[in-house]
Amino acid sequence: MSRTSGPIRVVVVDDQPLIRAGFAMVLAAQSDIDVVGEAENGADALTLLAGTEADVVIMDIRMPVMDGVEATRRLGRLPEAPRVLVLTTFDTDEDAFAALQAGASGFLLKNTPPEEVVTAIRVVAGGESVVAPRITRQLLDRFAGKLDPSPRHDERLDMLTAREREVLELVAEGLSNTEIASRLFIAEATVKTHFGKILTKLDLRDRVQAVIFAYDSGLVSPSG
């Protein structure tokens, strides 16, 4: 969903009232963020968002009625979908990987410090992901068994230039823009330009989706 001027509009989705209240309290203290709604499960979130414009949804994963993965997947089908940050325990919740595949722009630990939650919301609202490149790679490698063992070539890859494919491969390997620039002996600004073109050509929103695409298309494979 494209950002409009004014405060970042946030919806909090979690089946635990205390967690919702905690997020709402923290975010209410920010001059550039408005909590425009709360929901206790994915189904309620979809109903709420059908009539409420939002920029970012903080989405719990494991909830009754409809979990966060399915809700994220359904939100992603909307033409003006808000961006999603999933809540997870990371080390124990394998559904975090499914949420990324479903279109989430990143994930937060449930014990994330409040100031980091606020920063993450601003980053995601600005069109970026909140998952560090190496963490994205580690997550995908850990849950490699969930990937298609024989991914099919995606025709969208043919739209990329040789250099763009090279940049995408390095992004999927977990390198930052600075590291890619060093590896390819080009300016970091040039890396950013290439990556912007990659996102446009592949119709992707951010780094997380680019890494998922690289795996799903067979451009790269887990651990190598």
Automatic annotation (TrEMBL):
Keyword annotations from UniProtKB, A to Z: DNA-binding, Phosphoprotein, Transcription, Transcription regulation
Coiled-coil residue windows: none
GO molecular function: DNA binding
Positions of the HTH luxR-type domain: 153-218
Annotated InterPro entries: CheY-like_superfamily, NreC/VraR/RcsB-like_REC, Sig_transdc_resp-reg_C-effctor, Sig_transdc_resp-reg_receiver, Tscrpt_reg_LuxR_C, WalR-like
Keyword Lipid metabolism: no
Pfam family, any one: Response_reg
Gene Ontology annotations of biological process type: phosphorelay signal transduction system; regulation of DNA-templated transcription
Modified residues (4-aspartylphosphate): D60
Key word Nucleus present: no
Organism domain of life: Bacteria
All copies of domain Response regulatory, residue ranges: 9-125
Protein name stated in the entry: Response regulator transcription factor
